[in-house]
Amino acid sequence: MVVSEQPNESNEPAGPADGPRTRPYGPEVAEFVERFAAELTEAGMQRMASRVFACLLTEDSGTLGSAELSERLRISPAAVSGAIRYLSQVHLVTREREPGSRRERYRVHADAWYEAMTDRDALLGRWGATFDQGLKAVGPDTPAGRRIAETAEFFDFMRRELAMMLERWRAHREAVRGGGPTAP
Predict the structure, then answer these.
(1) CA distances in angstroms from 9 to 13, 14, 144, listed in the order given
(2) Distance (Å) of CA 173 to CA 15, 58, 116, 178, 180
(3) How many whole angstroms separate alpha carbon 74 and alpha carbon 171?
(4) Polar residues bias: where (predicted)?
(5) If you ran DSSP here, which 8-state letter would residue 182 be given?
(6) What angle do CA 70, 43, 59 make, to 5 degrees?
(7) Cys-Cys with 36: which of 5, 54, 101, 123 at CB 3.0–4.6 Å?
């Protein structure tokens, strides 16, 4: 879905932002947002959350409010709210209050992908204990026990590899960017 046929003033952020927008939210940006959102949805992310995340990713100022997201994506404020709730839970987006206002602005987490993968590492650790419980329940020498054991081995392997990969990412980021995540 293309959000806007032509860039216009009404698509510009309304309200304070961390920095000026250098280009309008035009058809090329809208096309990227929809394409990336489709890829995220295909990978398992909720559709509205995918669209909101992709839209936030393209914003030069680093933040957008609910009304801006609703207008750009042509979705209801309730859809924005649900998407932000999900994106906050998976540590991809943070909420910020506008100074002197009750309105919130939303920002892609400064290290979104790293945070998401770190969360997966913790999840895989919890799964290990669950697989151990399952293995004890069905017995290790049963067909079900062998399937559970192989599943546990796979996720244990993935957890170890993920930890090493995250460490390599930190070293790479340090070498390329001189430290922390990219600023908005």
Answers:
(1) 9, 10, 61
(2) 33, 21, 16, 7, 7
(3) 40
(4) 1-11
(5) P
(6) 35
(7) 54
